[in-house]
Amino acid sequence: MGKIYQVVVQHERMLLIDLCNTEEEMQRLTVGQLKEKILEKLPELEGKLTNLCLIFGDKRLIGDTSLLSEYGIQHMSSIHLIVLLLGGGPQPR
């Protein structure tokens, strides 16, 4: 049986996210694909894909087409998930 490449996502609770089965697939995974896999584990966030902010180390993962490997993310890396809340401005009169 092959290796399953995973990352740990820290949110309200720790999530173990299965990404792929080979190093080659791991090198081609994008930020957007990771967000989709997170939504599979957290269906309550459905429809909030654009509100998901992922942070690895001191870097925000920007651009859904960016490769995880460009950020140095590898098997069992720990990624923080923040759900951005829209609004907060003054109330309309």
TrEMBL record:
Domain (Ubiquitin-like): residue spans on this chain: 30-88
Pfam families in the cross-refs: ubiquitin
Domain of life of the organism encoding this protein: Eukaryota
UniProt cross-references to Gene3D superfamilies, sorted A to Z: Phosphatidylinositol 3-kinase Catalytic Subunit, Chain A, domain 1
InterPro entries membership: Ubiquitin-like_dom (IPR000626), Ubiquitin-like_domsf (IPR029071)
Protein name per its UniProtKB record: Ubiquitin-like domain-containing protein
